[in-house]
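A reminder from the course coordinator: this example appears on the midterm review sheet, so study it carefully.

Given structure:
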């Protein structure tokens, strides 16, 4: 069957190709170049926030069919070397998010445009006007996570303390409050909760205690040693420097 491109559509198609000449989108099936993290790091802890309701949307995110972590094989293998460095010190990685399908990013965008939905504001973006989430760089139409070599994570001491369960509808606490006041996490105290849209989440923020800054430095140093770079607004966010798909955004579901 032949398809005819209308003249009305053609200019937009040409413009898109000009703006995004090297970006491609892939869907449906997980390539064999990706791997579930438990096959590489069996003892890593998972707290996949977008599979549940304890995240800034307050609902399970599109594309998350299981609480699983999927990464490209090079990213997973590099992460295994980080885990190996932690093991002698009775510590382990805990992962919040790995590969993120484009459909999940689209869900983020729809949520951000619905400025009346502010049910999670008190915890995740208490000092940010929702209308400014795009302007301030918290939400975008594409994410490095969709390329498969970006991971959100922290460090947990062993034996791992009990991780309190989140109950939908429970009172929310601001994510920038001190440990013991904000929602409890069993990780080392990194100074804020995960996905905290606040300046205290910036890795180099100097308005934190010495202990919190030293824990962040530990995480950043170990990740950098094994080829990851840190995002300058999120202490938990790291991308493999030599990622195999720097211009490809995948859309297969997490399952």
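Designed residues:
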């Amino acid at each position: 069957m032949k398809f005819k491109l209308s003249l009305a559509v053609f200019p937009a198609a040409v413009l898109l190709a000009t703006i995004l000449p090297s970006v491609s989108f892939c869907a449906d099936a997980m390539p064999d170049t990706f791997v579930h993290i438990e096959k590489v790091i069996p003892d890593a802890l998972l707290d996949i926030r977008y599979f549940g309701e304890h995240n800034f949307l307050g609902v399970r995110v599109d594309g998350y069919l299981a609480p699983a972590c999927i990464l490209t094989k090079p990213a997973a293998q590099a992460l295994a070397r980080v885990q190996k460095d932690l093991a002698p010190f009775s510590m382990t990685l805990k992962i919040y998010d790995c590969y993120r399908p484009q459909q999940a990013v689209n869900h983020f965008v729809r949520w951000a445009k619905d400025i009346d939905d502010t049910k999670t504001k008190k915890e995740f973006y208490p000092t940010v006007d929702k209308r400014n989430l795009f302007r301030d760089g918290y939400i975008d139409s594409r994410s490095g996570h969709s390329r498969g070599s970006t991971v959100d994570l922290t460090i947990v001491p062993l034996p791992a303390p009990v991780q309190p369960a989140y109950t939908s509808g429970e009172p929310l606490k601001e994510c920038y409050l001190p440990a013991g006041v904000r929602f409890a996490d069993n990780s080392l105290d990194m100074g804020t909760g995960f996905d905290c849209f606040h300046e205290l989440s910036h890795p180099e923020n100097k308005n934190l205690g010495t202990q919190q800054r030293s824990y962040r430095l530990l995480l950043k140093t170990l990740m950098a040693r094994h080829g990851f770079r840190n995002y300058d607004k999120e202490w938990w966010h790291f991308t493999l420097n030599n990622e195999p798909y720097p211009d490809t955004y995948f859309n297969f579901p997490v399952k």
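The domain at 20-250 is CATH 3.30.1380.10 (Muramoyl-pentapeptide Carboxypeptidase; domain 2). The radius of gyration is 19 Å.
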